[in-house]
Structures are given as structure tokens and as C-alpha cells.
Protein: DNA topoisomerase I
Amino acid sequence: MKKYYAALCQLIQNSAKFNRDSCVYFVRKYARASENMLMPRLVRVNTKTKQQWEEGKHTDGQKWKSLEHKGPLFPPEYEHLPSSVPFLYDGEPVKLSMSTEEVATFYAKMLDHEYTSKETFQSNFFTDWREVMTEDERKLIKKLSKCDFSHIHSYFVKKAEEKKNMTKEEKQVLKEETDKLTEEYGYCLLDGHKEKIGNFRLEPPGLFRGRGEHPKMGKLKKRVQPEDVIINCSQDTKIPEPPSGHRWKRVQHDNTVTWLASWVENIHGHIKYIMLNPSSKLKGEKDWQKYETARKLKLRVDGIRSEYRRAWRAREMKQRQRGVALYFIDKLALRAGNEKDDDTADTVGCCSLRVEHITLHHHLDGQDYVVEFDFLGKDSIRYYNKVPVEKQVYKNLKLFMEFKGPEDDLFDRISTTYLNKKLNEAMPGLTAKVFRTFNASTTLQEQLSKLTVDDMTVEEKILAYNRANRAVAILCNHQRAAPKTFEKSMQTLQEKIRKKKEDLENAKKELKQAKKAHKECPTEKTRKLVEKKEKAVKRLAEQLKKLQLQETDREENKVIALGTSKLNYLDPRITVAWCKKHRVPVEKIYNKTQRDKFAWAIDMTDEHFQF
DNA sequence: GAACGTGACTCAGAAAGTTCCCC
DNA sequence: TGGGGAACTTTCTGAGTCACGTT
Structure:
């Protein structure tokens, strides 16, 4: 941890060289927080900023000096269903105990989803549900197929409908209540500065879904009690109160970590945390540091690439595997691919690829040495790609696959730990995931410079940006389900375009006529008419162009998620510099949340920034 | 020193909620 | 101008990465 802080301090100094105003962001944010909290306001001064900022730094792994918060916000307790909403077993109404009914409502609420029809889901749910039943209920309710949740389901559908149809005033009251809770629980004081918390609400109980074919889907996610929660805060400030009649599992004062509260979830036994919002200083610093590491890789990447290419011909199989794995991570932006527990969905990354996930083609579609990838990656998103590779890589892959079955590991001699150890030797701080950040940001910068032309309109520039962003999303395989309304909204848009074209044609005709009339008998009136018609044509043409751009953008974006790369992989300074250079308002690219998260970059970057 | 487990953090898409825009 | 739906934003929480300690 020490080395990180030393590195961060170095980083800040370097960045200060780059732009002496680099620390203004933090001072400005503090000033904003101070206003809210009626604390003495820090003044926006540039010369002292760096010093002021460094004063707050810790070099010994400490993340904060003081941390005060209200603890997590618990979900409301369960309330019985009205007696008019029956649960039926084998056609007969059965009055359920509180806990049994609560779990039944979790299932009933999900009936619309396709996954409740899956066997794993049903069986996991039923097993866990029976565990919360009373002895009598267990004796009676033996088959899920005999359970009728439809009345409960309809009840919640109706309630949702009612909520939707509330009057403006009723909705306003509800919003005020939410805002009040957010104000109370949604912020903490970190080193005296008000910071937004990311997830201050404890996860409510429900049924675990998981992504893809998760073996634990349908299991009961239990209600978290105060007795399960560890509070992390400073010793000398007010310690959060547990709900009345309860106590915390523990209160600790560990300032080497950034979380405010934690608990262990019951599905996998993993720890869950309450942490700060991405707009916070702590997260901002870490984000900045991430991009600086990726920038460092830029300076070293040629050497690293030469090295892993050499490894392709190494005598030791382990070295060859490392060389090829790194090549994939670098060229295809694959994730590292840690080993996973058996009780999770079967997904893989680079190091955990199995023989069955690739097919080798000596020739394919006019190309030589093609590797066809087909596997499920993070979140069970399919990765499918046909990539021509270098001959030596191809030969190595053949070698790695020799005498192996489809379910054997392709890279059986290496692990992510080993890979990262080697990477760290090549460049301190370098790990497999840095390649994703590096390649994503590099791609954005290249694409932006390729796609942006000075005389473009702002709309065209935005399309260019989206296209550059899209290139990165494709590289990183960031996919989304096509929006449910996609086809319909596309049709609407196409209809609009058709109509606009028609209008434009008509307007052109009218202009022609007006011009003719003006030529034949020029008067002030006819001249004005020509002007008016010219304006109309121009306006319609612009509108048409805008719609067509929209169509292209939407079509190209159908199954691609741009948000993930924008938020996590693209150095925001590239975007800010591009906006400044091409006079595109940064608000057109980043929404409010994104501007908050990237405030550090917005403040410190000028148009000359190069990743 | 390798295998394993744990902890802390980043990254991920879906769903819910809100705003905007057009008829 | 206001209602409806599309688009955008925010929230939610699951799924990864990676460091580190223990065996």
C-alpha cells in the first residue's frame, strides 16, 4: 500500500507539471461540500492547491483520518398481505405464517420473468422456501407445482399500477420522503468533507437471480440484520446508532480501508460493502491513478510486446503459454480469467479458456491462421470472434491443444497470479486489466482523431464521438440486450425521415416556384417569399440530416453498451481535451453523474492532452 | 513456493425512475 | 399545452480482478 501512495504522490507532482491547476478540482469540491455543511469554506486558490492537497495525503496506507456516517439504511420490515389476497395450495386457500408469506411474495413478484420457469430456479427456491416454513406448512406444502401465487402476483401488479397512477402531489410527497432519507443517510463526512455514499441502502431480501445459467438462481437472499453488519468509522466521531432494540455485529475503526459498513451475504458467503460514490475524492484519486498506470504502459508496451513475442518460441511450455495468453489479453482485450468456484455460472477469461472455447482454422474466409473464439465471459456475455493470428501463435495453440479433451484448460501451465507477477516485474503496478484500460483509451484517442473533421457540425462530431466510443465497446465486448422497443422506435424514426424527405421535396418545389415568380415580376414581397422559402429548405435539410444521423447512431448501437467503457475504461481527459479542441460542450458527452465522476479531469485538462 | 482462502476493490448489464420531446 | 412514450439517468447488486496471508 505504501508504494501506491508514494506512486500517487509522484503522479500528482507529474500531473502538476502538466497543469498547475490540477488540484483545483478537489478544492472546488470541498468548497461545495462546505457550503452544504456550513463549514469554513476553502478558497479556490491555485498556487497553494497542490500543497493543500498533498497535506491531506497519507503515505502509510491510510485512506482517511476521520470518517463519520449514519450507518446503512435498512429496508422496511415485511407487512402481511391483506386477507383478501390468498395463496392457494392445491386449489385451497392457505393462511401462511409471516416469513413463509414474505418469501412467497418474492416468488410471486417474479412470475413475469422467464427464469421462474427454469428448473434450477424453482428447485432452489422451493428448497429454501421450505426451510423458512413452519412445521405444519412444511407438512402441507410439498410440491411447487401445486402452489398458486397468481393472486399475490396480481396484487403486486395492481399496487405498481396504483403507484404509477398517483397524483402529482402524492408523488411529490413520496419524493420528499426519499430525499429526506438520502440527505440523512446518503452522505458521510470524510476528513471533514461531505461525500456522497454509493449504496447506503442495505440490499433488501429477495430471491437470488445471478447472471446466465447460475446454479444458485432462485435461492433465498436473507434479510440483513443489524447484528450482521460491521460498521467502520473513526473512533473520535459519533458512532452510528443501530436500529432500536438491536446492536451492530462490530464497530471498527480501520482507516486502511474505504468502506463504511459490511456484511456477509448468505448465497456465497461473500462480503458486501457500503462504499463511497464515484464522485468522491477517494474514488476520483483512485480512478486518476488507474489511468496514469495505463499511460505508463504506453511508454513500455513496445518492450513488453517484444518480450511476449519472444516467449512464443521459448523452450519452456509455460513461457509459450504466457506469451500467447498475454498476446490475447493485449490484442483482444480479454480479461485475465481467474479460477472460479464451481457454484457459479460457467464463464471464463483468458487464463481459464478451455480447449472447447477455440477452433483453429488454417484458412477461413480468405485469411490464414484464424482462431475462432466462442465462450461466455463475465456476466455470461458471449464472446464470439474470428481472429487471424500470427503463424507462431497458431502453431503454439495447436501445441497447447495436443492430447487434450474439450474440457481441458488451454493454458494449463499458467495462472492469473503468475501472469500478473511477470507483468509486475516488467512494469511496477502492471496487471492484466491495465491492458484493457490502455487499449481502450488508446483506441478512443486514435478513433477520435481519425473520425473528427473540423468543419463538422456539433451533431456530426457527437456521432463521431459515439463511433469512437463504440469501437472501444466492441473491443471490450460490452453488449446489451436490444431494447424491447427497438424495432418500433426504429420504425417511427424511419417514418419521420420519410415524412421529412417529403416535406423537403415540397419545400424545394415551393422555393422553385417562388424564385420563378420573383424572376417574372420582382417585388419586395416576392423577394421576401424567396428568402422565406430558402430558409425553410435549409431548416428542413438540417432536420433531415439530424434524423438520419440519429438513425445511423441508433442502428449501430442496437446491441452495444457504450456506458461501461465510457465510465470505466476511457481516460476522461481524452474526452475533455477533444471537447475543448473541437468546441463541443462537454455536457453533450458527459451527463451530470459522469461530470461529477470526472470532475478531476474536466478541471485539469486542456485541449493538448495526449493519453 | 504453490495452492488456497479471504478481503477489498472495480467493472457489469438490467431494471427502475425521471426527463424530454413530439403530436 | 398536456399526455404518452421514448430516451436518458440512476440505482441495484452480481461478477469480476488482484493483493495478501496462511497452510
